[in-house]
C-alpha cells in the first residue's frame, strides 16, 4: 500500500492526470500482489476487459509480471519498494505495463484496499500450506487459498465454499449449554458464590474459543469408539469459521462456543480438562493469590460437575426448551468479556461418547474415581495391591472365576451392557413433539411386558400410565426389543419419585437385569437431584425391593406424598433413600475390589511381622481383665516427654519446610473455600499443630500423628483428585511418614 501511495505521488510529480496515477498505482499492485499468488491458476491478477489494442492483437496471455524465482517467504514490509515506470514495456509481451491494468481505473480506493487485504490473506494461507504437516489441515488451507484467489479474480466477496453449512451448526450452543448448567446447578447459591461460579464458566468458555483442536489424523490413532467422519466435518468448520479468520481478515470470525454445540464439546472435553488442570498446576506460582485459589480449588470441581452433564444424554441443559429454576434470576454468561485466555493457558483436544444412555465404563475416569487413601496406608502400597487385584490370576478367595456363585447379582447384566448386548433408555410419550416411531414401538413393547408380568393390573390402567406424558419409563432393550422396564413419575417439587411398574419378561429373569435396571434408575435420579423413591409393593415384589435397598421405614415426610400418590389395597408402601456419592451401577464392583484390597493388605501385614511376643498367661491365674497398654507389643512410646517434644518439633519443622506444605500452613479461610466447614467437621492445619506442640498437648506420638493425618485426610475429602492440593497432600504425607520412620516413632 505504501508503494501505491508512492506511485501516485510520482505520477503527480510527472504531471500525469488522475486516471494515469490510478493506473500506475494499480500496475504496481498487480506486479506486487500477483507475485504473491504462486499457486494462482490464472495469468492476470484481476480479469482485464480486452482493450481496443488487445482486440487488434488478440487476447494477451502474458505472465511477464510473475517473478521467475519467487522468494520462499513474503517480502519484508520495511523494505523500500522501487518505483514502477508504467510506460516501460512488459518484458514478456511488449505491451506497456499500464495496458495490463486499464480495467482497474474506475475501482475505488476502498475496494482496492479490500482486494489487497485478500492478497495478504492468500499469502498467509500459502505460508500455512508449506508449514503445515497434517494433510487434512493443509487441504483446508489450500482450498481456502484457491477460493480467495477466485474472489480476487472475480472481484467478489469471500465465501467458504463446500457443503459445510453456515453457522451456527448446533443448538443450543456450548455457550448456552454452559449458561444453562450454571443456572441448573447453582442458581440457589448466594450472590457472591454464584458470581464465583459465573467467573469459572466464563473462564471455561474463553479457553474453548482459543483451543487448538486435534487434527482428524491424530484422532484416527485412537482406539475406535468415536465418529471420525463427524469430527472431521466439525474440524473443517472450526478451521474455516473460527481458526483461520483469526489471521485472515477477509473471512468472518465466529466464536467456537457460539456456533458449536454439545457434539464438539464432547469431542474435546476430556483432554482439554486434563491439559487445563495440568497447565494450571505448572503455572500456579505465576498466578495472583485470588486466581490461584479460584483455579486450583474451584475449577476442578466445576469441570467435574460439568463433565457429567456433557456426557449425559438425559441432561436438561442441552434442551432448547430449558428454563431456569425459580430461585433467583441470573445473567447469561458470554465469552466476549475476555479478549484473551486467562493466564495464557494453552490447551489440546479429545473424546466422544455415543448416542446411547451413558454407561458406566466409558465415562468412569481413573483420576475421578480413584480410591482415596485414608489412614496411614502409603499410596504406593495401594497402587501395588491394586495392580495385583486387576490380574484375575492373583486374586484371592472364591471370586477368581469371572462369574462365580459369589458374584454380584448384576455382574452378568453389567458385562452384557459393556459388550453392547443390552441398552438402557429413559423414554416417554410427548404431546408437544412429533412421535418417534422407535420410541412408540418401545412403549408398546413395555405395555405388553407389564401386562404379561403383572396380570393383576388392568391392561387399560397400564396403557394409560405408560403413555401418560407425565410418566417416564427406564426401558431395557436387548437385540432391539423391549425385555423389561421401570415406569415412574417424578415429583421434583416434593423431592421424590413414585415407581409405578417394574418388570422383566419371564424368559429373561434371574440374570441380574432387575438389579441393574434399578441401579440405572438410581443414578438417573441422582443427576436430577431427586433422592427418594416410593412404591407400593405387593407380596411378590417386597423381596425384590428389599434387595434394592427399599424398606418400610419411609424417610419422606407424609405431608410430602399424601395426595400425590394413590393407595393400593393389599400393597405395602416402601421407600428408598439414595446416596448421591455412590455410583450405583458400579457399586458391587467397588465393594468387591475393596474386599480384595483388605485381604491383600492383611496378608502383607502378616508377612511383615518379625517380632513375636509371648502369649498372655495371666488369665490362667484368674485375672479377668487387664489394661490394653500392658499387652506386649501393643504400645511402644518414647517415655521421656522432653525427648518426645524435641523429636516432634524437629519432624514438624521438616514438614513445614517442605515444598508441598504451602496449602496447609494456616487454617482454611471461608472466603477462599465456600462451604469448606460444612464438609470438613474437624479442620486441622500446621499452624494449629505448632500451637498444640508448643503447649505440650502431644503427650504421645499417636496424638501428633492423628492431627497430621487429619490435615491430609481433610484435604483429600474436600478437593478432587486432579487438584493441586490433593497431590500436595499425598506428597507431603509420604514425606511425613518417612520422617516419622527415620525418628524411630514407627517401625520401618
Automatic annotation (TrEMBL):
Residues 656-726 form the Bromo domain. It is an enzyme of class 2 (transferase). SUPFAM superfamilies: Acyl-CoA N-acyltransferases (Nat) (SSF55729), Bromodomain (SSF47370). Its EC number is 2.3.1.48. InterPro entries: Acyl_CoA_acyltransferase, Bromodomain, Bromodomain-like_sf, Bromodomain_CS, GCN5, GCN5/PCAF, GNAT_dom, PCAF_N. It catalyses: L-lysyl-[histone] + acetyl-CoA = N(6)-acetyl-L-lysyl-[histone] + CoA + H(+). Belongs to the acetyltransferase family. GCN5 subfamily. This is histone acetyltransferase. It comes from Scleropages formosus (Asian bonytongue).
